[in-house]
Design brief:
alpha+beta; four-stranded antiparallel sheet; 4 strands; 50% helix; globular
Length: 148
């Protein structure tokens, strides 16, 4: 059985790098969007949303399209609630025992770069919501372009 890449990155860090697991996962998530996804899945990304919020709303649909290629893939799921023109609430669900929240934060940061906006991500503690997920609030600094 192949070891998942984020786990492999964490083990490499333990051997040689002087940085935290969260930094590695966030950096890899951002790199995945800004470099790998754009190079190999650019057309799919372009069709997945006109702006940051639109893209995030379509994440489940995007993952379903990926499942066609990888039938055993069990993607995460995302539920979004637009709070106002500059802030959204995002619930991240996963079947994994260990949620890859830091990787998701990196992916979202990469999407912000892709759409030319800046975001701040705030984690909502589990005791503040009844859902079996990780909830975060995302504030966008250039909301008019983000909501597109």
């Amino acid at each position: 059985m192949m070891t998942p890449l984020p786990t492999t990155l964490w083990r490499l860090r333990m051997m040689s790098w002087d940085c935290r697991r969260s930094d590695i996962l966030q950096g890899f998530g951002k790199y995945w969007v800004t470099d790998i996804a754009l190079e190999h899945y650019g057309e799919m990304m372009a069709k997945s949303g006109a702006g940051f919020v639109d893209f995030v709303k379509n994440l489940d649909h995007l993952h379903e399209r990926i499942r066609v290629t990888f039938p055993d893939y069990r993607p995460p799921s995302f539920k979004i609630k637009v709070l106002d023109d500059a802030e959204i609430e995002l619930d991240y669900y996963s079947h994994r025992e260990e949620l890859l929240l830091d990787f998701v934060v990196g992916l979202l940061t990469g999407l912000a770069v892709y759409y030319g906006i800046e975001i701040d991500i705030f984690h909502v503690p589990g005791e503040e919501h009844p859902m079996p997920c990780q909830r975060m609030r995302i504030r966008m600094s250039t909301a008019s372009e983000a909501i597109a």
